[in-house]
Design brief:
2 helices; 15-stranded parallel beta sheet; mainly beta; 5-stranded parallel beta sheet; 26 strands; single chain; globular
Length: 223
């Protein structure tokens, strides 16, 4: 459950967020302080005059922010990334290069490595998405338990304390999450894993896996 188990650090300029020997999710508690220390607000990309951009925002060269997008900040938008109309980027968001942040998607306290795609109707809160991770339309990364207690990671029958009350998921490099799936608090998805649409997942999912939804369909004659 170390950062290198899930993430390729050649595809981010924010390696300093992650501490060697600590669980990968420990970086979530440092995003705010990291941005406070490293962020130098500037708009170098193409931002629509109809977008809303806060004072503590860095937008790198080649990035595009469309009309009606909101970047509240603090936020770091990497080179060549595309923030589409209707995206809502809240506090403490770090976006790598050539990412897509799409229509009706909300982001908060999260890190996206390069080439992530989060294009349609998604919620990404208190999460880390690896290189070329992709969320299908309607995928929700749920970050708070219903009882509001500390999030734990369940692995091989063990409950591992995270020290976090808000933590949704670690999505490994090249992972694909199918449309309208829910990734529950404290989930770790391994590299190259594919989760089928409409799934509800939790725990630790190994790399190079398929997670399939089994359901039946019944067709009944109308009366």
């Amino acid at each position: 459950m170390l950062p290198t188990d899930y993430l390729d650090f050649t595809h981010t300029v924010h390696r300093a967020l992650f501490a060697d020997g600590e669980p990968v999710w420990s970086a979530l508690s440092r995003i705010g302080s990291y941005l406070q220390a490293e962020l130098k607000p500037a708009i170098l990309g193409d931002v629509s005059p109809k977008a809303t951009v806060g004072e503590q925002v860095f937008i790198d060269e080649g990035a595009v922010v469309e009309a009606n997008a909101v970047i509240k900040g603090p936020a770091w938008i990497g080179r060549g990334s595309h923030v589409r109309s209707g995206a809502y980027i809240r506090e403490n968001v770090i976006v790598g290069e050539k990412c897509v942040l799409g229509n009706s998607c909300e982001f908060k306290n999260c890190v996206l490595f390069d080439n992530c795609e989060v294009p349609h109707f998604n919620y990404v809160g208190d999460a880390i998405l690896g290189y070329k991770a992709h969320l299908g339309a309607g995928v929700i990364l749920s970050n708070v338990k219903l009882d509001r207690l500390e999030v734990v990671v369940v692995h091989e029958g063990q409950r591992i304390s995270t020290g976090l009350r808000k933590f949704s998921a670690i999505i490994g490099d090249h992972a694909e999450i199918g449309c309208n799936s829910v990734v529950n608090p404290g989930t770790l998805v391994g590299r190259n894993t594919i989760i089928y649409p409409l799934s509800s997942v939790n725990g630790v999912i190994p790399a190079n896996s398929f997670v399939k939804l089994r359901q039946t369909q019944e067709i009944v004659q109308r009366r």
